[in-house]
Amino acid sequence: MPPETPSPVFRRVGRTGWLVDLADAPDPGAAVQSVAAGLRSLAADGGLTGVVDLVPAAETVLVTVDGDAPDPRGVIASHWSALLATEVTAGGDEVEIPVRYDGPDLAGAAEAAGMTPAAFREWHRGTTWRAAFGGFAPGFFYLVPVAGADGSAPTVPDIPRRPTPRTSVPAGSVAVAAGYSAVYPSSSPGGWQLIGSTDAVLWDTDRPQPNLITAGQTVRFTEVTA
User: Fold this and answer.
1) Eight-state DSSP code of residue 128
2) Strand locations in 148-203, DSSP E?
3) pTM given for the model
């Protein structure tokens, strides 16, 4: 955290929730992942009691406790430095998603990234992604790049959302925007840049676990032509 904000920022959510706000961290996304992982470990070890749910988002972590649990802020504040330093490890098996790079926005996204379409495809499929958090729709996960093809620090091109969202994006559309990649699990409106499509089913209520991806898992995209 920056020197002027040495302590965590808390915002009350309902009667039993606290939002830990990391918007002022040098890298909010990375800080969220570290703090969320640290809080899960702290709760599992009994250091943070009464936790009902931990929900990371882009710049916040929502901590919900049961009604009889003590206020979690003191414990979180006392472990703050350790929470920020928590190493994030992959959760569960790696998910492989086959992609046809046939999206209508592929050329524009590549241009915004300063790449040719071929180089952009290579970047996207060569990057290791992690499911940072879910939202927007059941099965929709915001994927952040965690490593390049050679294991080095990932390239994160600045690709904006579309100026005008589409009223309908087909299910299985592979998209990028604002440092994230994602797959639309169902047909819905959407403003991300569509770079490809997949037959992978991201959300299926007939499966024991409906979502194909869970928070913390690593994801790789593999190119297919049919």
Assistant:
1) E
2) 166-169, 173-177, 180-183, 188-190, 193-197
3) 0.79
